[in-house]
Design goal:
The complex is a heterodimer of chains A (230) and B (457). Chain A is α+β, with helices and mostly antiparallel strands and 230 residues long. Chain A has a single domain, classed as Bira Bifunctional Protein, Domain 2 (BirA Bifunctional Protein, domain 2, 2-Layer Sandwich). Chain A is built from 7 helices and 10 strands. In chain A, a hairpin with a 3-residue loop joins strand 7 and strand 8. In chain A, helix 4 packs across helix 7. The N terminus of chain A is likely disordered. With 457 residues, chain B is α+β, with helices and mostly antiparallel strands. About 15% of the residues of chain B have low confidence. Chain B folds into 3 domains: 174 residues, Beta Barrel (OB fold (Dihydrolipoamide Acetyltransferase, E2P)), CATH 2.40.50; 37 residues, no CATH class; 208 residues, Chloramphenicol Acetyltransferase, CATH 3.30.559.10. Chain B has 12 helices and 20 strands. In chain B, a hairpin with a 4-residue loop joins strand 11 and strand 12. The chains are: A alpha+beta (230), B alpha+beta (457). Chains A and B meet through helix 4 and strand 9 of A and strand 2, strand 4 and strand 5 of B. Strand 9 of chain A pairs parallel with strand 5 of chain B, so a sheet runs across the interface.
């Protein structure tokens, strides 16, 4: 069995399970086209419009999600451009997608670190101090994961996307995702409920849309300066 | 012909899994057009073609793991054969790949056929360049102990083929003797697309008496199963362990060290210094590394390597101690270089730093190379004894069990002491049981008296 990128999925998938499809990434497409055109870094921050499962570019839906439960609940299963394990997104999540020019196809580790640093500074500026980068690409608050990020690298561009848990339905994550097949060291085997947090759970009462607008305003000048061009 | 090597994707990233090919063999591809997608742990990368031309060869299948620097494609661009560091060829926008390759690329050999005396590929800057070869061919070379960069390739653009590696192993400078060849050093075989399992099994069975290799049964017929491809670190560990167990006659020597005084000293220092980032957690491992270093100076056999092809023992006059770290994704062995020149404080800080990077998956590859001896500590997880596998081509590995308070007899009295179980697994080709007993005895002496260890710093 192969999925939509022609890759072996490994486990046997029962008949009737949906293959993941490319997500509704129109905004990202527009960002990529614009930065490709003029080389100026750009970004967008928005609440995810619907409940969905999203797997990494090479992810295996049969290992990383519960496709039968997703199908029964009519929850779409999308495939993103970047790597990493499956996530559940809903309107309580802020999606932050950034595209920056960077020569070649390498420097992925540095790109993660540099862009995460800018997001962390922007979060502090909008009243969310104390966020740290943990593992390769996670954003954490008080030892719990507040956001996960991924990168898609193509010649001359870095596409970075992070999903921030502002006020998500954490029960949905348990319902649709098994324990991930790989995890960062700091997770230490914790279940989703014990591992994840949200801004709401940490005492931030603001609406998702409001935080998104303020975050975009704080992030825009930082990204415009292209932190990858050190 | 243009041989395209997987570029450097970032610090600590040594490989990528092929997700998708955007082209097929024989297809025309434009410069900068998408060639293939690869995925690392958290990132996906679309790699463009550095040249316009016809795809003459693809360096792997979807699902294959390709190491940085390995051939991923050969592009027939109608020009003379070239092999280039892809990272250089795609590093700078606006600078054409052709210019890059012309000025920096190594010229791959044109002459077909075996050339056992060939020099490694040399670039104009004098640096050694990797030979172009498919991942399966590199794996074959590693299994045969052949330096693939010393093999002259007979394939397109000087690409090294499996036949070249077999020929080099049989005829090259590291060729086994005629008697050995007839005995146990017949070239190993690997299972690839054009070699059936039956052929592989028959060959393996012909070289190892009583060995019976059969495909695994269909476990799914007996109940639900989950299938997980063997990837990345797990696959590397599998190769290293099988190689070690197949090549090295392991012997284990076990003993206990009384670390009561050392633990009192260590824990008091840790309490006193708190979370001093300059000293790390001051774990027992840092003291054991220092004790092992002192032991290795007195017992150089355990800091050596045996070259089975030259039939030589290489005694190393430097001390690079590796420590096994469980990353959650598999085992890695960060290496502390020059432990004879470092204090326990420095070693402790370096352990903390490298273990953290290893767990995060960002430990640079160079920090995992060059080890001369390895220590593995299962103590924090429990366990009184273990039989560790030697980290080939090293000669020995020390396993640490859990420190426990135990009743022991001292001067005719039963007293409670803190006891550290130690197991030294070693290569019996180089050392004997008596050597191991003396070496472990010296370790115990060092670990039993912190003052002795402090003299080493």
């Amino acid at each position: 069995m192969t999925d939509t990128v022609g890759r072996s999925t490994g486990a046997q998938a029962p008949a009737g399970r949906p293959d993941p499809v490319a997500g509704p990434w129109d905004l990202d497409d527009a960002l990529l086209a614009a930065v490709h055109e003029d080389g100026r870094p750009r970004g967008v921050v928005y609440p995810h419009p619907t409940l969905a499962a999203v797997i990494g570019r090479g992810g295996d839906p049969w290992r990383e999600t519960r496709p039968d439960v997703l199908a029964a609940d009519a929850v779409p299963l999308y495939r993103r451009r970047g790597g990493g394990c499956a996530v559940i997104v809903d309107p309580g999540n802020l999606v932050c997608s950034l595209v920056l020019p960077l020569a070649g196809v390498g420097e992925i580790t540095r790109a993660f670190a540099s862009i995460s640093r800018e997001v962390i500074h922007a979060l502090a500026a909008v009243g969310v101090p104390g966020v740290q980068q943990s593992g390769v690409s996670d954003l954490t608050l008080a030892g719990r994961k507040l956001g996960g990020s991924c990168i898609w690298r193509t010649r001359g561009l870095v596409y970075y996307s992070t999903t921030l848990l502002v006020d998500p339905d954490l029960d949905a994550i348990d319902r649709y995702l098994p324990h991930p097949p790989r995890e960062p060291e700091y997770r230490r085997g914790r279940a989703h409920r014990d591992f994840l947090t949200s801004l709401r759970a940490e005492g931030h009462p603001d609406r998702v849309e409001d935080i998104g607008q303020r975050l975009m305003a704080a992030l825009a000048p930082r990204i415009a300066a292209n932190p990858l061009q050190d | 012909m243009y041989t395209f090597l997987l570029p450097d994707l970032g610090e600590g990233i040594a490989e990528g899994e092929i997700l998708k090919w955007h082209v097929e063999p024989g297809q025309e591809v434009g410069e900068d057009a998408p060639l293939l997608d690869v995925e690392t742990d958290k990132a996906a990368v679309t790699i463009p073609s550095p040249r316009a031309g016809k795809v003459a060869e693809m360096g792997g299948k979807v699902g294959d793991v390709v190491n940085v620097g390995e051939m991923i494609a050969v592009i027939d661009d109608g020009r003379a054969a070239e092999a280039t560091q892809a990272a250089e060829a795609v590093a700078t926008p606006g600078e054409s790949a052709a210019e890059d390759a012309d000025t920096r690329a190594a010229t791959a050999p044109q002459r077909p056929g075996p050339a056992p005396q060939a020099e490694p590929v040399a670039a104009t800057d004098g640096k050694r360049r990797p030979r172009p070869a498919a991942p399966a061919t590199r794996r074959l070379a590693r299994e045969l102990g052949v330096d693939i960069n010393a093999v002259e390739g007979s394939g397109p653009a000087g690409r090294v083929t499996p036949e070249d590696v077999h020929r080099f192993a049989a005829e090259g400078p590291f060729a086994p003797t005629a008697e050995a060849d007839a005995d146990t050093h017949a070239p190993a075989k690997t299972v690839d697309d054009d070699q059936s399992f039956a052929e592989f099994a028959a060959h393996a069975a012909s070289t190892i008496p009583f060995l019976e290799l059969e495909p695994l049964p269909d476990f799914a017929a007996d109940g639900p199963v989950e299938i997980e491809p063997l990837r990345s670190i797990r696959r590397k560990v599998a190769r290293k362990m099988v190689t070690s167990m197949a090549l090295v006659p392991h012997v284990a020597h076990m003993d206990d060290a009384d670390v009561t005084a050392l633990e009192e000293f260590r824990l008091s220092q840790r309490a006193e210094r708190g979370d001093d980032p300059g000293i790390g957690k001051l774990t027992l491992m840092s003291f054991v590394i220092k004790a092992v270093t002192a032991g290795l100076r007195a017992a150089p056999s355990f800091n050596a390597s045996l070259d089975p092809f030259k039939e030589e023992i290489v005694y190393k006059k430097y001390y690079n101690i590796g420590f096994a770290a469980d990353t959650g994704r598999g085992l890695v062995v960060p290496v502390i270089q020059g432990t004879d020149r470092k204090s326990i404080r420095e070693i402790s800080a370096e352990i903390a730093e490298k273990a953290g990077l290893a767990r995060e998956g960002t430990l640079p590859a160079e920090d995992m190379r060059g080890g001369t001896f390895t220590i593995t500590n299962v103590g924090p997880l429990g366990g009184t004894a273990m039989l560790p596998t030697i980290n080939y081509p090293e000669v020995a590995i020390l396993g640490m069990g859990k420190v426990q308070e135990k009743p022991v007899v001292r001067d005719g009295e039963i007293v409670i002491r803190k006891i550290l179980p130690l197991t030294l697994a070693f290569d019996h080709r180089i050392a004997d049981g008596a050597d191991a007993a003396r070496f472990v005895g010296e370790l115990i002496r060092q670990l039993s008296d912190p003052n002795l260890l402090l003299l080493e710093t």
